[in-house]
Amino acid sequence: MPRAPTAVRSATLASLVACAVFPACGGAAAHSTPPPSSPACPATSSPSVARALIGPDVDVRVSCQSAALAAIASVDEVGAGVTGWSFTVKGDAAFEAPPGQDTFVTCQATSPTVAFVEFDPPADALPGATFDAVATVHAADGSFADGTVKLHGEVTTPAVTVDKASVDFGTVGLGDAPAIPLQFTAENGSGLSLAPQEGYGNGSFTRPPFVVTLMSADGIANTSTFVWKWVVTVETSVPGDYSATIDWQAVLPARMTTPPPQCSWTTTTALHARVVGDGDAGADAADASDGGQRPASSGSR
Hints:
This protein is 6% helix and 45% strand. The chain has 301 residues and is mainly β. The longest helix is centred in the N-terminal third of the chain and has 11 residues, at 7-17. It is elongated.
């Protein structure tokens, strides 16, 4: 069965590392077993004195065809020695060690060393699918006791919030170009793309007389939260009463050409503005917006 691409993993790792700098804890013990070595931790005659924090249990959620990393253990070498350790995973294959990252050599130069498991559900997993496994952490020299971490993962629909359901400019003077911001926030938004479902390109789109422009799309440092900031502007030289709607969608576009409805988040934003000319009270100006044939209230999509 195909696996999800790995592009999302680096962004997810960056947001999780900040949560994985575990405080040193647990009993420390000295051992005389010949230590392992690595370029960063050359062999030494000093015994290992390791402090380890194993856990807490993992509960991770991802969108369709997405993957994530979760920290399971941290080992700190507080002496001048070297500690070799590793972990194994048993259970659903959606949980596994990242390639080449299940065996570690820890010394003062690399402390604390953090182990991660990867949650990578099958490509056809839909929201509501759950997966479980257990990771076992082991010290090669017995410098700390083995420990286990329960792993639970779930595929979910993207969770996005928007700061306003509608944008109403009220009465706008002819020639003015007022702007109102519109902000979307995703708590687990790494890799998500949020945009109108139709007519979007090059960072902006129009629903005459409204112009909607993407100002920024950024993650919040040390978190998995992502924020999109748009701005809506009225631009017209024709008086009238205007209404329009925008249908938005948040998906992982690189992973699904046509995502099932369960895999995407959608919402609709209503837009309204009443544009008046100098000294114009309304009715005549509205008629003028389409050459006097009918009111301009239908100006939209």
